[in-house]
Amino acid sequence: MQVTSTVEGSRAVVTASGELDVATAPELRAYLHKIVDEGASTLIVDLSDVGFLDSTTLGVLISVHKRLAEAGGVVELVIPHARLLRIFQITGLDRVFTIHSSLTAAAQ
Question: Which segments constitute the STAS domain (predicted)?
Fold first, then answer.
């Protein structure tokens, strides 16, 4: 897993790549919470280059969503691939997160 980010004011775009699973979830959680601690209230997580994610990763995204929602913030996701999008649809998380098909769409 690799994670990078760009921050503009209170908006952060986090780009993850590789596999997001039980082994990488703690690192991802720490990374996302650090960005929130530093003042981001809008967090866009780009999953375009993620080959696999598991339920532990879903838990990380939900925990960050809850934390930001309590403070009036939002987590949005970029998921261009049907295979990952299906996971969010099956679990009902497509109704929790705003999901964009590209970073360009998320920027609008």
Answer: 1-108
Give first-to-last CA distance, the chain, whole Å: 28
pLDDT in tens, 81-107: 999 999 999 999 999 999 999 999 998
**Distance (Å, rounded) from C-alpha 16 to C-alpha 2?**
6
Mind listing the pLDDT tens digit for each residue in 3-31? 999 999 999 999 999 999 999 999 999 99
pTM for the model stands at: 0.95
User: In CATH terms, is domain 2-102 a member of 3.30.750.24?
Assistant: yes
Parallel, antiparallel, or unpaired for β 74-78 and 2-8? unpaired
**What's at 39, amino acid-wise?**
G
The whole-angstrom separation of Cα 63 and Cα 31 is 13
The neighbour count for residue 78, using CB atoms within 10 Å, is 22
